[in-house]
From TrEMBL, chain A:
GO BP: any one term: peptide transport
Compartments in which it is found: Cell membrane
GO cellular component, one term: plasma membrane
Protein name stated in the entry: ABC transporter ATP-binding protein
Keyword Signal: no
Native source species: Propioniciclava tarda
Principal place of residence: membrane
Family classification: Belongs to the ABC transporter superfamily.
NCBIfam families named in the record: PRK10419.1 (NF007739), PRK11308.1 (NF008453)
Domain ABC transporter span(s) in chain numbering: 41-290, 333-576
Bilayer topology term: Peripheral membrane protein
UniProtKB/TrEMBL annotation, chain B:
InterPro entries from the UniProt entry: BPD_transp_1_N, MetI-like, MetI-like_sf
GO CC terms of this entry: plasma membrane
Residue ranges crossing the lipid bilayer per the database entry: 12-32, 117-142, 154-180, 200-222, 262-284, 304-330
Name by which UniProt lists this protein: ABC transporter permease
Family according to the record: Belongs to the binding-protein-dependent transport system permease family.
Organism expressing this protein natively: Propioniciclava tarda
Membrane topology category: Multi-pass membrane protein
Gene3D superfamilies xref list: MetI-like
Transport in keyword set: yes
Amino acid sequence: MSTTTPAPKRAAAPAPKVALDSFQRLSRSTGAEVKQGDVILEVRDLTVNFWVNDSWFTAAEGLDYDLKAGEVLAIVGESGSGKTQSSMSLIGLLPKNGRTTGSAKLKGTELVGMPQSELREIRGNEISVIFQEPMTALNPVYTVGFQIVETLRTHFLMNPSDAKVRAIELMRLVEIPDPEDSFNKFPHQLSGGQRQRIMIAQALACDPKLLIADEPTTALDVTVQAEILKLMRELRTRVNAGIILITHSMGVVADMADRIIVMKDGRVVEHGTAADVFYRPQHPYTKALLAAVPHLGETRIEDGRSDALVVKDREFLALEPADDPSVVPALLLENVDITYPKQGRRPAFRAAEGINLRLNPGEVMGLVGESGSGKTTIGRAAVALLPVSAGKITVCGIDITGANNQELKPFRRTVGMVFQDPGSSLNPRLPIGESIGEPILLHEGLKGEALSKRVEDLLDSVELPRSYRNRYPHELSGGQKQRIGVARALALNPKLLVADEPTSALDVSVQARVLKLFSNLQEQYGFACLFISHDLAVVEMVSSKIAVMTHGKLVEVGATSDIVTYPQHPYTQRLLSAVPVPDPDNQRRRRELRDAIIEREHIVS
Amino acid sequence: MFYYILRRLGQMVVMLLLISATTFAIFFAVPIDPARYTCGKNCTPTILEGNRKSLGYDQPVPVQYAKFVQGLATGRDFPDNAELRAAHPEQVVHCPAPCLGYSPLQSRTINEMVSEAWPVSISIALGAFVLWMLVGVSGGIIAALNRGKWPDRLVVGLGLIGYSLPTFFIGLILLTFVAIQWGVVPVPSFKPFLPNPFDWAINLILPWITLACIFAASYMRLTRAYMIETMSEDFIRTARAKGAGKWRVILRHGLRASLTPIVTAAGLDLGGLLGGAIITESVFSMHGLGFLAVNSVTTMDLPTIVAMVLIVATFVVMANLVVDILYGFIDPRVKVGA
């Protein structure tokens, strides 16, 4: 990951040399220069409606706020709360069926009701947007340099070479390595973090007064997220812009925000300073939201050992009782290598190597790592969906290495799998009762009454009404669909369950409920579980052991509290310190600690 | 990249050899006597045997095929039999490489026939191509931008009509009314591009329209579908958010990103058409490759049929190669040669 090359400690990068003032503006500028502390945006009674099915649907209602230059205002809420649409309405980027009423003044210029031709001059110039998921938000057929230059030349009379100089300076500002070279790269040739930096560079191109960051770090790994947040924090003091940060992650908010607006179903339920909202929440929804966020290392903070990220000797951990050899492990991986075979001219890729892992019956082990670390590969191999190229995998005493489909059939009923995206892992043409009942039909041959009894029991156990069995997946919400996924995985009462990022597609409050249900079911059914997730805080909630993976190797395995409190491997330390916690003061301490860790590593290397 | 093209060209040669061998096998191994077809009404056994010998049909089919391939590579002389050539040197016809064969019915080499026909076919195909791309793509964009409103319905409706009317029907209607009854344009007959390009164009306008109709309709649908998809992508919102103007967003970002499937289809269609637009050429009596193909089939001119199949196959395979190479330029995510 890019964290392995920490940015060298540098005095702030030189400010762009190509001063925009020397170029003629093509787009008009609203008002005079902005200084830190000036109020740049006044929003009054902002309401967004959509014309849906012959009536107005309210997406956001009655927003009131002021934003000063240099200030970060976070708008928090779950999906569908109107947080994105209310901000997009400022620059007229609503879908065609959208309507904005109320008032939003940018340095005194009214934005609501401004004709598109004038709004176009504001967009990218005075107000710019950092979108989420830069893979799709950058045009795949143009170089990243071109896309920054395009922004500049849209608003300034600049020749291509001046624009290129300015673009390269911007890329240097956002710490793109080797900007001259990267200028000519296409988005798919950059990493996710670098793409997000390009997105930021593009947004900063014309020195905007207002920056709207829409879930800027949602699609990124935690360590990359930490770097992007660091970059944005540095930038906020250097550019005289107000920042509206739209996010669902309370951790990100704690890391960045000065003031917070909490939205629910289109309404503002809470508005205050970061400290107020986090430490003295008023509205029940805010309280529930804060409670639903998994807090990493909660126990540690209560212990007053929040600075425990310092490396401590963990000798005493060796005293941990050795695994009882008489217990047959639910899952045992011995020196497992997994290789994706070469395809045509694409060379073979080793996704995991030398994996040794032992999961005892009834135990929940969290497997964490960033994207591409090989955690999903391990999960798939454990249920024999992928062949291993070396080593041995044993599930409940059955050696599944090299078994063919015929031999695996009895094995398949001892394992269950919950997939990441509940939407696409359920067959959209089957009523959910059939999806749940299929494994039972296949393995136990139950039909009619008996089958329907079992399906109803399973629906009960995942706390869904029995009548849902006749519904189709699209009629259910994301959380409900994931419950169905869990019910299907449990249909045959498996001894081993592999859950691959089961909650990462869900909103926090939904996630909290699904995790709770999951823990209850685990106690009730007593299956062993390999819980794969990129989210350490989630893993900490459900699992008793944690295994950490990076680059296809297992770097650390241990009891959850040990890993979270006394991480030994530098990678684990870095990973832990990168997770933003939803607590501004604590997050500030962690941030400083993280900078120290990276600094130290940098000196060591 | 260079090696990729080289490799593809190698594959292409192998494929064309296979295609020609198959065609050869079908037309010469069937239980009909090719010599009989060259002999006309008042056929006597003597003339029949003489023809057979001079055309080389007395030899086994593999030998005939070997000579055909050799002719493609180095050229060959007709009549096929060395004795006959020695006996009547004044009748020897030389066919330079790549020699496609000799048509006994036309008493000419096929190379000669093709060299007369291909300017006609290429003129028709290229003109129609430009026309249908302009009409189809712009119609598709208009429809996509006004989705569900009247311009969309109009374009989609016209597309449906263009799609469902058979080419010969459109061609005959245009010929009968525009050219003959109203005399807006002369009755089409092929004129070379030089010295008078206007004359060339005015004579070809009706075939162009006829041929372009059906393609324009299908490209409208194609462009409309891809534009609708692309215009809902995130990067279009990004382009709008950076303040790019409406048409810049639509053309530079939207159309550019939907170009890949359109160019693919266009390349393959054009490749197929370069081998002759059979119906259009027949309707307007344009003596292009399509007309030649039809003629050779109706008269059972076997060597010409084999040659025509080879020509059409070459254009199609070439078009595939060109499209694959273009891919790498149109969509940087596609790595050509990987």
